[in-house]
Amino acid sequence: MLNPRPRLTDRVKHRYYHKYDYLVQSHGAVFCTGCGRCIDTCSAGIDMRESLRTIKETAGSKKA
Amino acid sequence: MKNPYYPVETVVEDVIVETPTIKTFVLAPSRPIKFKAGQFMQLTVPGCGEAPFTPSSSPSVAEKMEITILRTGKVTEALHELKPGAEVGLRGPFGKGYPMEKLEGKEALVVGGGVGLAPLRSLIYALLENPKKYKRVSIRYGARAPEELCFRRQYDGWSKAAPNVDFTNTIDVPAAGWTGRVGLVTTLLDGLDLDLDNSIAVSCGPEIMLKFVTLKLLEVGYKPPQIYLSMNRKMSCGMGKCGRCNVGHYYLCVDGPDMCYDKIKHVPNVFG
Known about the structure:
The complex is a heterodimer. The model of chain A has no long low-confidence stretch (mean pLDDT 87). Chain A has 3 helices and no strands. Chain A is globular and about 30 Å long. Chain A is an all-alpha fold. Chain B has 2 domains: 8-94, Beta Barrel (Elongation Factor Tu (Ef-tu), domain 3); 100-264, Nucleotide-binding domain of ferredoxin-NADP reductase (FNR) module (Rossmann fold, 3-Layer(aba) Sandwich), CATH 3.40.50.80. Chain B is 19% helix and 32% strand. Chain B is built from 7 helices and 15 strands. The radius of gyration of chain B is 18 Å and the shape is globular. Chain B starts with 7 loop residues before the first strand and ends in an 8-residue tail after the last helix. The mean pLDDT of chain B is 93. The interface between A and B is small, with 10 and 11 residues.
């Protein structure tokens, strides 16, 4: 199946942008329901809340 | 409720060979499909798949539709095997299309690259139908090689359509027997004799070409709101649901596929 975003980095980026940026711009709301299932299931132990905090703290700086 | 995923049954009436890799399909849908220049269709090849294409025919004809297609992937390869009489399906039209109202009274600069001239031909038909509505229509087109120039037989007709219409083309690298211009399509934008403040540029082509055309247009003095780009990525649902065609928070299938550069200039890697 053709993937519209062949690079993993683009897919991860899109996931965050879609929930927390694009739809905030177009619909005025965050599209994460906050169920927490992604945190429970992530086998790499990634907590989206942590990632978002990091993004917020490093926004605008080159360090991210 | 009408199912938006249900295609209109369509018969391939004729297949015109444009270049070794590009064919134009003349399609006869079982009911007329009204579309605006720049809007796109989802074309189904039964048993193979569906892919988005912008018609290359005049938007004032709804009974027939021509779509010009480059052989490049699974669906387009199957399409290129089709013979007249084959059955396909059409969904659409989707998107907003070209900014026709904005072009009125302006000097329109149409910049095409390769098969990118296909959607633009629909725009050219629309512009040339009433050339007096526009101050000027200037068409600049580039292809890799002489045999890859699309719609060759029509260039003369276009440049002679009205006094305010001109057409220039170029090929990327020199070729035997070619006496015309050589150089990338951006070289046709050097020393533009257009009234830039009163002009709108519309471009369609591969993303790499759109990038350099945009940079060139900005360099010669166009402002981002004056530049429209046919992004035409792999739109899938056509209804702003699936998220395949996002450019920033815009969906090309709903807000485009012809986007004003001013709206998307801040998007990182906007040209892929």
